[in-house]
Specification:
Pfam families: PseudoU_synth_2 (PF00849), S4 (PF01479)
Number of strands: 17
Strand content: 15-25%
CATH class of the largest domain: Alpha Beta
Radius of gyration: 21 Å
Family: Belongs to the pseudouridine synthase RsuA family.
Catalytic activity: uridine(2605) in 23S rRNA = pseudouridine(2605) in 23S rRNA
Shape: elongated
Protein name: Pseudouridine synthase
CATH superfamily of the largest domain: Pseudouridine synthase
Distance between the termini: 72 Å
CATH topology of the largest domain: Pseudouridine synthase
Structural class: alpha+beta
Helix content: 10-25%
Domain RNA-binding S4: 11-69
Amino acid sequence: MTTETTPPQGEKLQKILAGAGIGSRREMERWISEGRVAVNGEKASLGDRALATDRISVDGRPVKLDNYASRVRRVIAYNKPEGEICSRSDPEGRPTVFDRLPRLSGERWIAVGRLDLNTSGLILFTTDGELASRLMHPSHEIEREYAVRVMGNVTEQKVKNLFEGVELEDGPARFTDIVDSGGAGINRWFHVCVMEGRNREVRRLWESQELTVSRLKRVRFANVIIPDHLRMGQWEELDKDTIDALAANVDLTPAPLPTVRKQARTTSTGLKGSRGRTAPLKKGKKRPSPHKKAAPHKRNRFS
């Protein structure tokens, strides 16, 4: 004799809130645990499910689920300057990466990972909390590529150690690819790839070999490569093909275009086919040094 069970109704509450652009899934789980979320007037508990037709509120304020119901997904790329922090506000009054982003109505930008104060380059922001959570989760092994200037004697043995893996204070770590991009004297540029977004991981890996990182810039996240024309402090909205490819990396289906799109601060409407950049590094293949083959004005793109 078998007993039929009724499948659970709706989706997990934290997933709905993340999909509505309120915050990342981890952040929503914490808010639910803190008693800040209610469904149909009742305080929610972690593990609760809901429908897009339910009345959901956070801190007593109703949550608009229009974006969740239509699965609108927006992503922008931001070229972070050194000196900006990745928090929404700072008690010390330092500038944040959110200061220059376009204003939204009824939703907010969610940062996909973080960069240190002294690290520049590509940060993605999205209105889709589920996409942000999946891109940041280590299980999806999303590749991040950095251009890094290293001071010191970089020997073949040290590069081998970094490729094979070293033990850091929070566990083993390694570069999945290392490319010598040239340089002069004690300073050399390298392109390196990691599969996680651990705190200061790139710097700590080089420091494990008694080397110093003097410049660090993220140039790629998954399939999104920062374009040459995007200057420090500028943002640009990704086109639908690029967003769909990004979502496919973490097993999310394509989403429809938003009914209204804000203009980016640059002339291009997306990152697909950006000028002067090579394709992402692939396993087993090495990128030629940009310092050797690029035109003179390209050689300084990391300066």
